[in-house]
Amino acid sequence: MTSAQVEQHDKDSAGNEAVRADHDDTASGEGYQRGLGARQIQMIAIGGAIGTGLFLGAGKGISKAGPSLILAYALAGIVIFFIMRALGELLMYRPVSGSFSEYAREFIGPFAGFVTGWTYWLFWVVTGITEVTAAAVYMTYWWDIPQWLSALVFTVILYGANLISVKLFGELEFWFSMVKVTAIIGMILICAGILTMGFSDAGDTASVAHLWDQGGFFPHGIGSTTMTLQMVMFAFLAVELVGVTAGESKDPKTVLPKAINTVPWRIAVFYVGALIMILSVVPWTTFQPGVSPFVKAFDTMGMAAGAGIVNFVVLTAALSSCNSGMYSTGRMLRDLALNGQGPKAFTRLTRSGTPLVGTTVSAALMMVGVWINYQWPGEAFNYVVSFATISGMWAWIIILICQIRYRLKADRGELPPSSFRAPGGIWLSVFSLAFIALVVVTMGMDKDNRVALYGAPVWGLILAAAYLVLKARNPQGAAFAKRG
Predict the structure, then answer these.
(1) What is residue 299's predicted lDDT score, i.e. its pLDDT?
(2) What is the DSSP letter of 355?
(3) Number of other CB atoms surrounding residue 445 within 10 Å
(4) CA 298, CA 190: separation in Å to the nearest integer?
(5) I need a labelling partner for 277 at 20 to 30 A (CA). Which of 3, 240, 338, 401 fits?
(6) pTM value?
(7) Tally of structural domains, the chain
């Protein structure tokens, strides 16, 4: 390096050390408490990759692609691992709460941080609306109670839990994830027993040959399998939530890399393994959209209690997602406010270190959404839901772009190297960006999901207008490329 580069490097290093010290201090800086332990972070990471996309949505994917859906999940899972390793490299460089908008602000620019923070906030608000409503619907399976009442009770409980402490949030997420993991492992073991010992009503016909003897592994062609990539990627939305927890992890330098490195086996077991077992016991031709493959598999096995079990699991998955939404939205709003890109009221914390105003506003919006869904449960609401998927993928795009720009700077000696470098340098991130672009193209080819692409530019224009207002009223906040 030249002397000028060395001098700039020293300045940057000093600035980065100051930022890291600020974020590592639980009594100052961000003000959060590091209350999430290794056990909770691991389960948050596991639970983030398992949701209603698997328990309910896989039925539609199976009917479209047959057994080749397994390959789609495996390929998408590899890309998700690349994304998470890119995130891990950034987290070990600077573990902060609200990481996506922080990295966007530093490596792309203040407008990118503004867009990312508000977009990820919108993603979780809309997701929270849909999930708490879904949870209310699942409750009617057992009791004939008004949907709005269940939604109200669930929202209030989760809101209260998130205000008490981050540790309670972690405990709730731990047990929500435990239910999902137990259900999938139980299904895998039951299917393995049927295949090897032949018990249950499906014992006489169960065979791994079902994976290829019902029209082949690609019964509708490779094109149909490619078209399922959008719903497969949507099933993995929220896996990046572990990055939001960075500022409140007790030992982020140790815990987060371990959690991220478990992504491959989580996907291999919970998605690929579960689908291989289910489709070996039950021919893929028996599945249909709108019906959980788990419920259908239990019915085929002659296990009448299966439907109730799966209903409890998807209820848990919905509450888990809503719980994550409550957690994420408050942190994102506070991160924006700390950087002058949101109302100052959002910076307020409770004594236990939780963002009071941001979480309250987000919870209130979730309740308004539940009321709207109750009054007008038509296609318009479904369009909003489809837009949430674009919002979620935006975070992945930002993670990959920021990792590329960070690695280039680190390799030039302008920034300190991360202790958890992503494999493949920048090239696997470039590949992942190309893969996401392919998913977006398939969305444009699908009339049911195309509307989400129409909504994205509208949201972009709204944010651009809001940023111009911010720039006029608070030039300093609009100009911040990073906190330092």
Answers:
(1) 80
(2) B
(3) 12
(4) 10
(5) 240
(6) 0.85
(7) 1
| Residue 361 domain flag | yes
**pLDDT tier, 288 (very low <50, low <70, confident <90, very high otherwise):** confident
Q: Does some domain include residue 20?
A: no
Q: Would you say residue 27 lies in a domain?
A: no
Cα distance between residue 289 and residue 269, in whole Å: 23
Tokens of 356: 């009071």
Q: Which residues contact 194 (CB under 8 A, 6 or more apart)?
A: 200, 202, 203, 206, 281, 301
**Cα 433 from Cα 231, distance rounded (Å):** 17
pLDDT of residue 39 exceeding 90, the answer is no
Positive or negative: CA dihedral 124, 438, 235, 250: negative
Compute the radius of gyration of the chain from its Cα atoms: 23
Q: How far apart are CA 465 and CA 350, in angstroms?
A: 32
Place of tokens 């991130």: 429
Give the C-alpha separation, 297 to 206, whole Å. 11
Q: What is the CATH number of the domain that holds 313?
A: 1.20.1740.10
Residue 152's Cβ-count burial label (10 Å; 0-12, 13-18, 19+) is middle
For residue 267, being part of any structural domain is answered with: yes
- 36 backbone dihedrals φ, ψ, rounded to 5°: -100, 115
On average, the pLDDT of the chain sits at 81
Cβ atoms 223, 65 nearer than 8 A: no
Mean pLDDT, range 175-197, rounded to an integer? 88
pLDDT at position 6 is 32
Q: Which domain holds residue 361?
A: 33-479
Which amino acid, one-letter code, is at 341? Q
